[in-house]
Design goal:
It is a single chain. This protein folds into 4 domains: 165 residues, 3-Layer(aba) Sandwich (Rossmann fold); 92 residues; 180 residues, Rossmann fold, CATH 3.40.50; 54 residues, Trehalose-6-phosphate phosphatase related protein, domain 2 (Alpha-Beta Plaits), CATH 3.30.70.1020. It starts with a helix and ends with a helix. By secondary structure, it is of the alpha/beta class. The chain is built from 20 helices and 22 strands. The strands form 4 sheets. The chain has an 8-stranded mixed beta sheet, with helices on both faces. It is 39% helix and 18% strand.
Length: 538
Amino acid sequence: MCLVERNIKTMTTATSVTSIDVGQFDAAIFDLDGVVTKTARVHATAWKKLFDEFLEGWATHTGQTFQAFDLVKDYRPYVDGKPRNEGVKSFLYSRNISLPYGNEEDGPDQETICGLGNRKNAFFLETLKDHGVDPYLATVELIRALRAQGKKTAIVTASKNCVEVLESANLTLLFDVKVDGWDADQYHLRGKPAPDVFLKAAELLGVFPQRGVIFEDALAGVHAGHDGNFGTVIGIDRADQTAALYREGADIVVGDLVDIALSQGDTIFSRSSRALPPAFGMIEGLTVALKKKHLAIFLDYDGTLTPIVDRPELAVLSDEMRDTLRILADTWTIGIISGRDRKVVEQLVNINSLYYAGSHGFDIAGPAGVKIQHQVGKECLLPLDRAETKLRSSLATIKGVVIEHKKYSVAVHYRLVAPLDFEKVKRTVSQVLSSEPDLRKTEGKKVYELQPRVEWNKGKALIWLLQALNLSTNDSFPLYLGDDLTDENAFASLHEVGMGIIVDDTFRFTRASYRLKDPQEVLVFLKQLLHVAQEASL
C-alpha cells in the first residue's frame, strides 16, 4: 500500500465487510427463497392464508379455540426451507393435529397433508402471477461477480416452483445447476435439514462439498450445509436469528450479502459498491498526503461527468463541471477515458489542457503531443464495418435500439428497448459476434459493444498514459472515477498505485475503493479537490 493510500485510509471509516477467499472454493450454492429472491414473504403469506383458513374450520369442527398461524413463531421453525408437504406435516404436528397423508394427486380442497400442500401452492402461484417476484440485488451482483471469477453456481430449493420464480425474476441464466422439489422427488432426496439436496447440487456441479460455499437464510438449510461437510456455510440473518444460525452450523452470519467481499489471500479485490465509504472521507487524507505528490485524475464521461441519458448525443457537460475541470488542470493532470470516439469526447469536454483516451483507450491524445492509436485496432476496422451492417439488418424490427459506430467499436444501446425484447437483442449481438472472430463483446449499462479482440482496455490505456506522462513513479498518485462495467479494468490497474472511485448508487461488485452516488456528487468532490490543490501549493 502506497503512502498516500495509507494516509487516506487511516482518516476514513469504511463499512466493515466479511471476505471470502475465491481460491478456497470452486462453486457457490444458493438457496432460493430469502437468499436469491424475495419469495420468502410470498411463501409466508401463502402459508398463513392456508393454515388460518384450515384452523378456523378445524376449530369450528372440533370446538377448540382458534389460534392463527404466526409468521414469527410458526413459519421459521416448522415450514421455512422444508419440502411443501413436510412443512404441512411439521406445523400440524406442532398443533397436535393428525391428517391422512394422501398422495400428490389430491385436490386442493381435500383435507390431507398433500391436499393442503397443493392448496398452499395454488395460493403461492396466484400471488406470483399477480405480482411477480423481486430478487435481492446484492445477491444477484455477488453471483455475477463469482461467475466472473470462473466459479460454478447452483440454485437449491424445496419448492417445485423454482423454474417459474427464476423466470419471473429473469435469473435463469445465472445458475449452472438447479436442484428443486421436482429433482428431489426424482433422485429420492431427503429434504432439509438433511444435506441431500446440497450434496446433489455439488455432484451435478462436479465439485467436492469441501470446495463449495453454501448461502442460506433458513435454520434447516444452514443445518443441512453443515451436515453436508461443505467448506463454508454462510447464514443470512433476515429474521433476527444470528445466534440460532450459528448454533445450526453457520461459519459466517451476515445481515445481507452486501456485507460479503471477495478476496485473494489477504487482499480484498471486489466488494459491493454499497459497502464502500464515500469518497468525501478521503479529502482530509489527500490534503495531508499530496503536499509532496502530484495528483493525476482520470474520469469516464457518460454517467460520471454527465448523467446517463436515453441517447448518447443528449449527454452534455455542464458549464460548472467544465470550469471545475479546467481549473483543476492548472494544478494537476486531468484525463478523460471514454467509450466514445476520442474526437467526440474532445468536442464535448472542450478543454485543451486535458488528455483524452477514446474508444475505451484505443485512441489516445493530449496537449503535450501525446498520441497513440492501437495498431491492432486499426486492422479490425473492416470487421467492425461488417458487424455494424449485420446488426442494423437483424435489429431493424426492434423498436428503441440505437446502434452507434465508433472508430474502434460498434455499440448497441438498448436503454429504450422494451424489456421483453432484451433477450432478442442479446441473442442477436452474440450471433453477429460468432460470425466475426476478430471481435469481442463487452457490456456496460444497457449497452453491448463489439471491439477488436485484443488485450486492450481502459485499465491498459490508463497505465500507458501514466507511463507516457511519467506519472507511474512514487511522486504521483492517480485517481480514477467511473461508473460503468468497463471502468472495472481501470480500478483494477490502480490497485497498488492509486485509487478507484465508483460512481454508482446501486448494488454492484467493484474493484473500486470509494464511491460517489452520481455526477452531482462527482462535481462536489472535484470542487473539494480545488481546495486540496490550494493547500498543496502552499
